[in-house]
Amino acid sequence: MWYHRLSQIYCSIQHQLKGGVRHSALQFPCFQNRLLAAHRWQHTALGPLNCVWQQHEDHLELRYAGTVMRFDYVWLRDHCRSASCYNSKTNQRSLDTASVDLGIKPQTIRMNETMLFLTWPDGHVTRYSLEWLLKNSYEGQKQTIQPRILWNAEIYRQAQVLPVDFQSFLETKDGLKEFLQNFLLYGIAFVENVPPTREDTEKLAGRISLIRETIYGRMWNFTSDFSRGDTAYTKLALDRHTDTTYFQEPCGIQVFHCLRHEGTGGRTLLVDGFYAAEKVLQRAPADFDLLSKVPLKHEYIENVGECHNHMIGVGPVLNIYPWNKELYLIRYNNYDRAVINTVPYDVVHRWYAAHRTLTTELRRPENELWIKLKPGKVLFIDNWRVLHGRESFTGYRQLCGCYLTRDDVLSTARFLGLQA
Ligand SMILES: C[N+](C)(C)CCCC[C@H](N)C(=O)O
Ligand SMILES: O=C(O)CCC(=O)C(=O)O
Ligand SMILES: [Fe+2]
């Protein structure tokens, strides 16, 4: 499962951090059997038996805080945090990994209540805190999933997520943190009382990230003048989609600020793509699997005025981390999807069926959140998760905004202590 409810996540994190479960080796029947193995289980000498370990031919096995972890010896040597192997001022490795013997084994292993000590054949000593190992092991990582609240219109409305005030966003750490927490949980967040100018919108963006300059510029201001060869620059309706699917790395975040609209229509549609994908996973797991495996191209070809652009991005609709199956990016844009020539005809047909299943979920009316963007209210959209669209409109409508680099937004969130 790539998705867990928030409470479960917090629970398991707390559980890990506090080392909630402390077992002795003998409480586990399977451990008794393992005692018969060539290498015997060892445990910490003093106090509660909260950690047991066993030295195998090619790895070290550790049971700590209810988790069985297995560490490759080269890995243990490579991650040594001693002053000569790791520069803790720059947080960079100094050790030349290529100089580590791939058959390396520790000469001695020792442990106290909180630390593991390994002495290597050349006498070098590596120390690890058990908490660090737990946090950084493969087995620990498998359990870590970005906390998210998947939503449909009802869930989002019920949550009554408040917009953050412009001043508080710009001037207080709490305002910024609240905003980012909302953004991470829901994939959308609002700032209100923003002066309706491009400069103030830019100021907002600069508070959390670098602006990602693209073929559309840095800050863009657009209206229905067809100044660019794309439907966005018309009055036509746009079905739900994610942007810049034709980049090798689609833009992480999109910022929208409607500066003016004198006319009718033009409401914004938002749909949580991860919510829809989860429904596909539950109802048709084979479709989910296919959507995560079939690579597709998206393409942007523009030859209007001075603008000559030809972009191609390749990747599946659903992108999941291979180690924990967590969904992290959805690429969905039927306008910009290119010719499918990456898979044979029979797979193509199954892919169309899977795409239909996802589209059905994305189009369920109860999953649609419709809002009218107004001057002063700025919307941030996680373009890797939440799809946007718009109703057709009449009259003069001017939108400004920008794309943000995802790395920088997440970096700001982490700096504020959020899990991102
Ligand atoms: C936001 N802004 C008007 C600058 C760009 C519009 C990009 C539209 C494109 N079809 C896509 O979905 O990526
Ligand atoms: O006009 C709008 O509200 C949004 C258009 C759009 O999808 C875009 O600019 O990416
Ligand atoms: Fe768009």
Automatic annotation (TrEMBL):
Assigned keywords, A-Z: Carnitine biosynthesis, Dioxygenase, Iron, Metal-binding, Mitochondrion, Oxidoreductase, Transit peptide
EC number(s) given by UniProt: 1.14.11.8
Catalytic activity annotation: N(6),N(6),N(6)-trimethyl-L-lysine + 2-oxoglutarate + O2 = (3S)-3-hydroxy-N(6),N(6),N(6)-trimethyl-L-lysine + succinate + CO2
Cofactors that this protein relies on: L-ascorbate; Fe(2+)
Gene3D superfamilies: 3.30.2020.30, Clavaminate synthase-like
Pathway: Amine and polyamine biosynthesis; carnitine biosynthesis
Record-linked Pfam families: GBBH-like_N, TauD
Top EC class, one word: oxidoreductase
GO cellular component, one term: mitochondrial matrix
Domain TauD/TfdA-like per the UniProt entry, residue ranges: 163-403
BP-aspect Gene Ontology terms: carnitine biosynthetic process
UniProt entry tagged with the keyword Transit peptide: yes
UniProt superkingdom: Eukaryota
GO molecular function, one term: iron ion binding
Record's subunit section: Homodimer.
Function in brief: Converts trimethyllysine (TML) into hydroxytrimethyllysine (HTML).
PANTHER family per record: GAMMA-BUTYROBETAINE HYDROXYLASE-RELATED, TRIMETHYLLYSINE DIOXYGENASE, MITOCHONDRIAL
Annotated family: Belongs to the gamma-BBH/TMLD family.
Alphabetical list of NCBIfam families matching this protein: carnitine_TMLD (TIGR02410)
Name of protein: Trimethyllysine dioxygenase, mitochondrial
